[in-house]
Structures are given as C-alpha cells and as structure tokens.
Amino acid sequence: MIDSYKKFWNNILNFSGTSNRPDYWWPAIINWILGGIIIAILQGIMGHPLTQIYTWHDLGIASIRNIVVLIVWLATLSVSVRRLHDTDRSGWWVFIQIIPLIGGIWFFILMILPTKYNRWQNK
Asked: What parts of the sequence cross the membrane (predicted)?
C-alpha cells in the first residue's frame, strides 16, 4: 500500500510504462480518504464550504486547494495512462470518460482488468 502510494508520487509525470492494479487503486483510495478528511477539517476551521469565498484568506485557501487538486489530477492522469498500458491499451482510452455515464463505467472496467503482457513493459 505505502509502496504503491510512493510510486504514485514518484511517477507524477511518467506517462510511459505500466502500473498494476494495486499501484492504481491504492492511491485512488488513499487520495479519496485524505481529500475528505482535509476538506472536512478546512471547512470546520473556516465555518463555511470551501467554494464560498468571503475574505482574502478564503481566496488564498481556495487558490492553494486548486493547485493541490491540479497536481493530484496530473498524477492520477499519469497513473491512469500507465494502468491502461498494463492492460495492453493505448493511453488515449482515458478519453472514454468524456462519454456520459457509459464512458465512466467502461473506464472503471478497464481499470479493474488484469495485467496483460504488453508492448509497454520494460520501458
């Protein structure tokens, strides 16, 4: 679990090679839990939702939040592409999510498929 999370952050800009199922799912679960906890704490301190900006302090927190979200999104995109490579598919399959409902379901199925010998291994 910890090793998968380290790989997630160490390969933030690596869009080649492969990532197995644990290397995709552990960071997804950990980021979801950490995100919920951090948002709950910040909203408790601020006394209102993070999306509502009343002061300069709120704007600063919202800006930092947006930067963190962008970094996590980039790392998630790269691990998604590597996971698709692990199932012997092109990273461009990540765009299947654009299709409402069906695309998200199809992408989820692609993420749970087992590893398949592929052209991206050993890269």
From this structure: 24-47, 59-80, 92-113
